[in-house]
Design a protein that fits this description.
alpha+beta; Ribosomal Protein S5, domain 2; 2 domains; 5-stranded mixed beta sheet
Length: 275
Amino acid sequence: MKYPDSPSFYTARAPTFDYIRSLEQALQHSRLALRTLHLLPLPDFAIKSVPEANSVWRSAADLSATLRTSITRSQHRRMMDLVQELDYCRRIAIAAGCTDLARGMSDILAMFENGTRGQQGAAAWTQPQLDAYGRSYTLGRRKTSSARVWMVPVYTPSSPNGEKKPCVTASEIIVNGLPLASFFRLPFDRERILRPFKIAGVLGAYNVFALTRGGGCSGQSSAVAHGIAKALVIHEPNLRRILRKANLLKRDPRMVERKKTGLAKARKRYTWVKR
């Protein structure tokens, strides 16, 4: 009796499951190789040295045409999970200098990468620039709040002979037409907005004008802080690494959890009564 060549022979989409199985095996071998080299699991201080992911993966339609098999959404999602895990292992190998191991994983990931779309996206995106008045414009978000932030350096007066006077700069932050202390009454909200300046060491060096909408005080202050952090990178690109380590350049993805049917709130339950 001759057995089928593939364990997925009796499935509805045998070629698709074969690709998924090959990705699982490649990921298993890659993790084993990295553990043998003592590169997995990575300590906390070494995770920051791993290069960022910059690959663009194919969609389900493109992948179906390339592999010549039909791929459902769930199967494509499973493939992308495996591909991203394998790409993370490849980036660890690149950072550790294991070129042969990284090259082998790159050969596997080549069929899943969409190089054309990645090049177009890189060419279309441009770094925001300052306007004619030296102002930067950024958009910050947090939960349901959004903030438009304009920021300009503080003008430093100079002496008649051309030298700058050694004075203490005093900046001003205006939110929705009101001073910072008048719009945000809670000290914690004001400290959240000033945190990017304190971490970057440029407190008092920029004037800020912000317009915020939606949400409450906490969300609006976080949205303004997000916009200020992005504006600081435009004025001083060397601050990107410091602000990125402080998680100020990335939007906080946490949202309010929705209320569930049969519950009092998102997770609170009604009091159980025996009778």
